[in-house]
């Protein structure tokens, strides 16, 4: 498992356990967070919040928030887009759509 699989799309917050539990790489589901999650959260976050300590934030590599997507669909659907500056394809689930600005937040896989 990689840190970017369990952090927000902006890479500055650790995801809540309920969000990690829904990821497709999970082989089993558990409503109760396992011990490893608590240990990782203690090590990586500031004062037991979900904000990552500065040494774990990687803005320069993963800054997708605000990128425009055409033909936005409804929440919870899977979306992909090509990020030209990083030369990668991002795959994720749409979590929030702002129709006024034509943007959306995507939880990447």
Description:
By secondary structure, the chain is an alpha+beta fold. The chain is built from 2 helices and 3 strands. It is globular. It has helices at 17-20, 35-44, and strands spanning 78-83, 88-98, 103-108. Mean pLDDT is 76; it is low at 60-66. It has a 3-stranded antiparallel beta sheet, with no helix packed on it. The protein folds into 2 domains: 3-56, no CATH class; 64-109, no CATH class.
Short description:
This protein has helices at 17-20, 35-44; strands at 78-83, 88-98, 103-108.
Q: Give the total of beta strands.
A: 3
Low-confidence stretches: 60-66
Shape field: globular
Order of helices and strands: HHEEE
Quaternary state of this entry equals: single chain
Q: Mind summarizing the main beta sheet?
A: 3 strands, antiparallel
Ends distance:
11 Å
State the strand order across the main sheet: 1-2-3
| Mean pLDDT rating | 76
Structural class by secondary-structure content: alpha+beta
Question: What percent of residues are in strands?
Answer: 15-25%
DSSP summary: helix tally:
2
The whole-angstrom Rg is: 15 Å
Percent of residues in helices: 10-25%
Provide tags for this entry.
109 residues, alpha+beta, 2 domains, 2 helices, 3 strands, globular
């Amino acid at each position: 498992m990689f840190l970017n699989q369990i952090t927000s799309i902006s890479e500055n917050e650790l995801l809540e356990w309920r969000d990690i539990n829904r990821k497709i790489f999970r082989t089993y589901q558990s409503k109760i967070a396992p011990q490893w999650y608590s240990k990782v959260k203690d090590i990586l976050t500031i004062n037991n919040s979900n904000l990552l300590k500065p040494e774990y934030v990687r803005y320069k590599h993963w800054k997708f928030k605000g990128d425009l997507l055409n033909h936005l669909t409804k929440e919870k659907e899977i979306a992909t887009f090509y990020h030209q500056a990083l030369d990668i394809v991002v795959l994720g689930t749409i979590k929030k759509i702002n129709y006024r600005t034509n943007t959306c937040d995507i939880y990447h896989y």
